[in-house]
Amino acid sequence: MRLGAFTVVDAYPELAGGDADRAARVVDLAVTAESAGLSSLWIAEHHFHPGGVCPSPPVLLAACGARTRTIRLGSLVCVLPFHRPVDVAEEYALVDRLLGGRLNLGVGSGYLPLELEGFGVAAEEKRERFETTLAKVLDAFAGRPVRLGGASSPEVRLNVRPVQLPHPPLWVAVQRREALEQVARRGLSVALIPYATVDSLEELAARIQEYRGSVPAGTRTEVVAAVHVYAGDRPERARAAFRRYVESRLAHGSTFLAQKSRDRPPHASPEAIEASGLAIFGPAAAAAEGLAKFASAGVDEMLGIFDFGGLAPEEVDRSVRAVAEAWGPERRSPSRLPAPGGNAL
Asked: Whole-structure pTM over 0.90, yes or no?
């Protein structure tokens, strides 16, 4: 099982010092992750609220790419219903070029009401828009003609295609159980954020097993999962930061965490999430062991969310390095990305 990193790019302007340099800190995180031996860094796309202050992952991924050489860099996720297909294809193709073929492309349909409303996307329409946009993006990556508008609009082709053909490795972010099976049947890899949707590692393992059972025979897919991690001698700081993070997600309408809070409140508190192993704070060896448990649940790559809740950059840096050292090279499996072609549609 590989070990990477994921950042929501959450900001807390009310804290001392603010977060004016939040994007620069993500670039620093990419440099730290690469030097520590992590396999990847993934960046979330969010809009209109401080719970996530990266509206354009391609821009920030390009900045990270300029400071790194080997680590894979990805979106988690590009929110397809918010964008024109040709814009997504052109921007991420160019980023893959700039990265020398190091792009991981995570896509999703969006889940925050504030963002959906801001882009004028009705919740009942987002799935159809996701499907339509994804199909056109993959056509454009593969060099096939696409239309910018309706049937009467002219066809266009990308003049810059990605290094990884027919397209960069693709993951779909899934939070609903029923969607997991749908994605599996299409032979697509998945990205999971367990703390918001399941109550235990056992439940996560059961869902991954269901997913694996629905993937077409002979199709290679991967599961990545992200959890909050802190390795160090001041776990109380991480717990305070995690509480800020959870409260921020609820304040900004995080649909699935809010539903968990309503339906299963004993499992939704920061303390309960940590007790279930879906957030990991403590000494480096214990943190690494907590992450390793996800391998038996069927996860191919664990993504540590290291920079959350306004933790100081120096603490984040130490935590990344400590976890990576405790993880050790013997735990790292060889890179085994899903075949770019796959059964995309």
From this structure: yes
